[in-house]
Amino acid sequence: MQRAMTIGRLAETAGVGVETIRYYQRRGLLDEPRKPFRGHRHYPADMAKRIRFIKRAQALGFTLEEIASLLRLEGADCCSDTRELAAHKVALIEGKSLDLAAMRDALAALVGQCETGQTEGFCPIISVLARDE
Fold first, then answer.
1. Rounded to an integer, what is the distance from CA 21 to the centroid of its chain?
2. pTM recorded for the entire structure
3. pLDDT per residue over 23-68, tens digit each?
């Protein structure tokens, strides 16, 4: 049988800080156990598994709202719903990748202008940022 643990021990087991657990509780991702009179709250050991699920989902780019949806789907016959959420996330990431590539290209072009030494006393990067458009 798994033993209950304090929030500090849970945080250590799950590899997060105590404030992370409290934040997840405020966001509704984790239940907050009842606090006994003159005692400490005790968390079930399997809550560490849920916290690791949340952290892995965050590492894949899911927001806490999306993770809440995933947690509601967990365990149910939900593969198509989960696939839909993940496919949407892939599309968002692809869009961000295109945006980042455009930013990289624009900055590289400005850096290139600086490196040519033909800036005639002005900085092309500052000029672009200070434009009144």
1. 15
2. 0.75
3. 999 999 999 998 888 888 899 989 999 999 999 999 999 999 999 9
How far apart are the C-alpha atoms of 111 and 73, rounded to whole Å?
Answer: 48
Read off the amino acid at residue 87.
Answer: A
CA–CA separation, 46 and 88 (whole Å): 29
Strand partners, 22: none
CB 33 within 8 A of CB 41: yes
Q: How far apart are CA 29 and CA 23, in angstroms?
A: 9
Kindly report the number of other CB atoms within 10 A of residue 86's CB atom. 15
DSSP string, 94-119: HHHHHHHHHHHHHHHHHHHHHHHT--
The pair of structure tokens assigned to 30 is: 């984790």
